[in-house]
Amino acid sequence: MDRGEDVVRQLYGRWRGPLRGYVLRLVGGDHRYAEDVVQETLRRARGSADVRTPEEAGPWLYAVARALVASGFRCAGGERPEEPPSEVDAVDHALQGWQVAEALRGLSRDHRDAVVELHYRRRTVAEAAAALGIPQGAVKSRCFYGLRALRDALAERGVTEP
Q: Which GO terms are recorded in the biological process aspect for this UniProt protein (predicted)?
């Protein structure tokens, strides 16, 4: 097995569930469509230089999945959504996702981990604390300061208002 296949297997094991839940919310509960998007997202991760380790891949994976949904992606033979967003909207949405992912990478590891656990993986504070091995108060504090730093970084990039 080559390194690419090993990374994809690790990504699949680590991110398939959280990514599928996220995409399901984006597509209004269409399980088949969500699974198509997740599979395509993980397939694209194999060839991406942006995906170095499975643990750091989350923001990139979420941005790609969001862009696929916004573009109306469907696997071969599948039907496209009835009203796909315009190309301009899809590109803007994808660019915003990449900018958020880049801004997340700029946070300290502690802040990024707390934000990802609570907001991308949709874990409770108690679940995030257990996953990170830190007290619940530390999760809340790190998330608060991480979100503030993320907001400031996005404002500097012109993505959000200050």
A: DNA-templated transcription initiation
DSSP of 65-113, one letter per residue? HHHHHHHT---TTPPPPSSPPPHHHHHHHHHHHHHHHHHHHTS-HHHHH
Q: Would residue 137 count as lying in a domain?
A: yes
Rounded distance between C-alpha atoms, residue 11 and residue 5, angstroms: 10
Note whether residue 80 is domain-resident: no
Phi-psi region of 77 (alpha: psi -120 to 50; beta: other; left: phi over 0): left
Check pLDDT > 60 for residue 85: no
| Structure confidence by residue, pLDDT tens digits, 5-46 | 677 778 788 888 888 888 888 888 788 888 888 888 887 776
Which residue segment(s) compose the domain that 139 sits in? 107-162
Q: What is the domain count for the chain?
A: 2
Counting beta carbons within 10 angstroms of the beta carbon of residue 53, is it exposed (0 to 12), middle (13 to 18) or buried (19 or more)? exposed
User: pTM value?
Assistant: 0.46
